[in-house]
Amino acid sequence: MLKILSGKQVKTLDAAHIEFNGITSLDLMEKAALAFVAWWKTIPLNDALQIHIFCGAGNNGGDGFAIARLLHQSGRVVAVFKCFDELAKMSPEAFSNMEKLPSEIQQKVWSEFDPDSDGILIDAFLGVGFSGRLRSEAVEVIQRINSFAGKKVSVDIPSGLPSDELLDGPCVEADYTATFAFPKLSLLFPEHSQVTGEMVLLDIGIGDEEYSRFSGSCFFLRENDIAGVHRKFHRFSHKGDFGKILIVAGSKGKMGAAILSCTAALRTGSGLVTSLVAEEERQIVQISVPEAMVTFSLPQDLSKFDAIAIGPGIGVGRNAELLATIFKNYTNPIVLDADAITILSQNPELLALVPKGSILTPHLTEFDRILGKTENHQDRLAKASEFCQKWNLNLLIKGANSVICLADGRHIFNSSGTQFMATGGAGDVLTGMLTSFLGQGYSEERAMICGVFQHGLAGEIAGRKKRRGTIASDIIEAIPDTFVELGIS
Ligand SMILES: NC(=O)C1=CN([C@@H]2O[C@H](COP(=O)(O)OP(=O)(O)OC[C@H]3O[C@@H](n4cnc5c(N)ncnc54)[C@H](OP(=O)(O)O)[C@@H]3O)[C@@H](O)[C@H]2O)[C@@H](O)CC1
Ligand SMILES: Nc1ncnc2c1ncn2[C@@H]1O[C@H](COP(=O)(O)OP(=O)(O)O)[C@@H](O)[C@H]1O
Ligand SMILES: [K+]
Known about the structure:
Layout: E1 2-3, H1 10-21, H2 25-40, E2 51-55, H3 59-73, E3 78-82, H4 92-99, E4 106-109, E5 120-124, H5 136-146, E6 152-155, E7 176-180, H6 193-196, E8 198-202, E9 218-221, E10 244-248, H7 255-268, E11 272-276, H8 282-288, E12 293-295, E13 307-310, H9 319-329, E14 334-336, H10 339-346, E15 359-360, H11 364-371, H12 377-391, E16 394-397, E17 403-405, E18 411-414, H13 426-439, H14 444-466, H15 472-486
Parallel strand pairs: 2-3, 2-5, 3-4, 5-6, 6-7, 7-8, 9-18, 10-11, 10-13, 11-12, 13-14, 14-15, 15-16
Antiparallel strand pairs: 1-9, 16-17, 17-18
Helix pairs in contact: 2-3, 3-4, 7-13, 7-15, 10-11, 13-14, 13-15, 14-15
The structure holds ligand NPW, adenosine-5'-diphosphate and potassium ion (K).
Binding site for K(+): 60, 123, 159
Organism: Algoriphagus jejuensis
Binding site for AMP: 398-402, 427
């Protein structure tokens, strides 16, 4: 899995990669520029428009000069705006790429840029080498970039955004950020969504194994991580192998939660799904999900279930007792979502009873309820580590780039998903998927990796056709397609 390094580690990573592969830093910069231009050709931008490229004096600017040359070679109309005035301060790679600019490309200084121009802007002013507070001229450059009304695309990171910290000053407000090699941590903070725009990760040929010598506890989960994590079934596998699970979800007026989580579990492969619901609510479940069995009271022997989930739509009323009973009579990890998390936050004495290794899946509001108010993602991740280590539990913080927080302190950021999943019931679907994988014999870590990635992928597949019209049932319908896309039987 791809490790997320700090901005300061990038130079050492590059140096090792360059030495190991017998290439130069200029070659690596060329790879970065080529990757950027290849991606550029796939995004819906008007090719006829002039491209204004703001270049700094460091290697981020060097990328900008190389991109200018390559876009010009592919027929685009390009102008370069230099954001520095002392040639002596340029990095050697930036200087070399500036020297390679063909004479047809106009070269100006940033203050000559008219923000009312038509076109598209590429921000290659500051990258991961930016540190401290922005100097006053840099603030003016960023203000000029932001006063441009057209689309803005940042190279590696929006200029002014620190790579690993919270934003604390002016910053380019990008529509797209194309980042190289690994996503910089700050691009994954929800607080920065206004400045990062859509983020895309560009491969520049540095293998995942080249990161292993660096310390770090943050990882980025991608499609190629999934197949190896799945369990293999064979032609003699029977429904018992695929797991018997119990889902405690739904209450009067919220029976959809039970239906969505049970259906999602079945679509994820569960052998037998039992739904615990109030007797008067049984019909809706039996009609909507005939494949699920229904029980009206908590079975005496919970050990017959390979996994249990509790929470979606159960209400917070008198359910603390139900939670306590399950915790005392079941030893395997449980999935705790929605109202179960709220009940835990109202009855903190229950936390010590939660089976070790259980998975709590809070969205940001539920997270604050159980762990206390958080100011930002940095604070949230620190609190999550402390909580997981103290209680030996796992947290899955939901949102864009949902984060798997493990008891050993690792944080795994998910790469799949789309804003079209911001729809009621999407979380209930995830609960069903996680419980299904646990029931199929996956460890908590593997269940979370497969569950969160395939949930996001199912959302993407549904969103391709349905866009903002995507509903939770569409995500469920797309779950089987995720197995097909990932080549898993
Ligand atoms: N593997 C990869 O990821 C690859 C990375 N590559 C690229 O290299 C980039 C990193 O390049 P880098 O290290 O040269 O630094 P960079 O971001 O250009 O910043 C330095 C400039 O910022 C300025 N500056 C700094 N602080 C400032 C402040 N407070 N206020 C104002 N100015 C400030 C500083 O000025 P100075 O302080 O020196 O006067 C200097 O001019 C990286 O983001 C990616 O794009 C690819 O080419 C290849 C593969
Ligand atoms: N913008 C987004 N990008 C990616 N995934 C998203 C986005 N918004 C929501 N999701 C996903 O959708 C699910 C929503 O869960 P939740 O908030 O619990 O919804 P509900 O309570 O309605 O079921 C989470 O898994 C979350 O990661
Ligand atoms: K930049």
